[in-house]
Amino acid sequence: MDTLSTFLQAMRPALEQALQEAVRPWQEPPLLGAMVQHHFGWQDPKARRGKRVRPFLLLLTHEAAGGNWRQALPAAVAVELIHNFSLIHDDIQDQSPTRRGRETVWHRWGAAQAINAGDALFALAFAQMGGLEAHFPPARVVEAVNVLARACLALVQGQVLDLAFEDRDQVPLEAYWRMVRGKTAALLAAATDLAALLAGVDAARRQAFRTFGERLGMAFQVWDDYLGIWGDPARTGKPVADDILARKKSFPVLYGLARPESPFAQRWRDPAPFTPEEARQMARWLEAMGAKEHTLQTTRRLTQEALDALHQARPQEPAASALEALALSLVGRQT
Amino acid sequence: MDTLSTFLQAMRPALEQALQEAVRPWQEPPLLGAMVQHHFGWQDPKARRGKRVRPFLLLLTHEAAGGNWRQALPAAVAVELIHNFSLIHDDIQDQSPTRRGRETVWHRWGAAQAINAGDALFALAFAQMGGLEAHFPPARVVEAVNVLARACLALVQGQVLDLAFEDRDQVPLEAYWRMVRGKTAALLAAATDLAALLAGVDAARRQAFRTFGERLGMAFQVWDDYLGIWGDPARTGKPVADDILARKKSFPVLYGLARPESPFAQRWRDPAPFTPEEARQMARWLEAMGAKEHTLQTTRRLTQEALDALHQARPQEPAASALEALALSLVGRQT
What we know:
Two copies of one chain form a homodimer. Chain A has helices at residues 3-23, 30-40, 53-64, 73-94, 105-109, 111-129, 138-165, 173-199, 203-230, 233-236, 242-245, 251-257, 263-269, 276-289, 291-312, 319-330; strands at 98-99, 102-103. Chain A is an all-alpha fold. The two termini of chain A are 19 Å apart. Chains A and B meet through helix 4, helix 6 and helix 7 of A and helix 4, helix 6 and helix 7 of B.
């Protein structure tokens, strides 16, 4: 078994247990408990669950920075809770009917109660942070709370931009990066930053670990945008060119819209909904314009920047290799 | 000038400045800044603002517990930010079109972006807490974060119950108190608890200060329920018997519904909307049943319990007198 799998095999049950223990005392009123259980897929052993990317990234980084991953579990749980708070609120905002193959919380219980379910996970995340005091000096825990709170703010800022893009004809690439830095990269950056901070590394190494998480988050988002158009439906569980059908202003789409005379941009400006066949045609136009290749190259460049930052951070083995493997697995290098 | 006014005259500008400074670095994207400015009424010097009950309660309690109120400002700001996060989300959930005489955030910018505005204030509250480290030992700050996070959870739990009550014919009084303990009392209890914790008083005094805030919060809610039916429209800015028109299951209404054969309960069960005249008749029926007197007596009893707890906490003068005056002003004794 490779190093990453060995780590994950130990970490996964510990993380799941810590996550469930964090939530368990707050099952009242039963409706709140039911929404949270349903969201996490805990009411059904066969339900699809999250991949836990952020907490694993945090735990592996903590090891690579010289810590013991078990001690960082409360921070890993907090980061996963924040991620899930944002998913529950995102689904309301995007009016998404399903997630992980089941009904979204708002679709089942209404938007009003779903807002509460998200808020509860938000609060639970901060209630977790006190648990770090068992192993870390309190001043470091206060700093960790601050890092987490700032990541939440950046996350919300990214989400404000993302929603605002829907009403705009054009989105400059610079605005796209600002959105991604908040919406996706901020929480991955916080995960590696918290891990390094808690391990007590010096400021330069901590910054390098943080940059590793941030660049990885950006690469992850661009790769997700790639999959939203050219992903294999059998693997993504979504139709071909799904992001075009949904008119999502993703990275490849912005590449196409930046060439306003292209057939792609002309058809996009026509507000008529796309048929599936048109969406496939749009994807082919984008590819012919070079958007597919440019998207892949951008993911590769950001991933390389992430790995360069990781090396600068002088991560310790064996976690270093596991971390590199986790990073590459997130951006589709294994396929 | 009385003691309370003297304190408030010093505290108000310091609090407003700290609140605005907390929010200022997070004005990006401009839409987020605009929503927050509008909510607080900062874009217009004549706009109505909040009464800042919770932060003043915290600052006065901190003085009464032997502290210096200026040092507790970050906690006061955090508590006010949490209160305003909950108002923004409440207004979405209740679909309220106005607050403090102006349009609510969701009504102006849509529910999706209003969710973000609330989430941003939530995160900002926790980002404030690190500022306490300038004057307090870090272990105490970690404990304060924990108190605040648990208050947020209780707040959300109360809100889940409150929304769920709308779909129920009957609400037992026990469930009403559970709702109020979360929705209103939890944040006032957290305000006095944080104040005492930061001042470093012993566990018994801290608990007494906390009980003071909690009972005051419960009294405050019952008094608010009283005003929702029998308040003077010239003072509340709302029509007579407004809570009956809105079919809110407030304390006096539950008193009436507990007597299912009464004309009040019979008419309530008829789903036809109330005319203003009918609502006034319902209020008179409630009064004749003894609901008005019982509501007043309950406020008085809870206020007395709050003041008893305050005396047990052995508060220091001159803040002690100011705190008592603030408490009485919240439950209408001055009228």
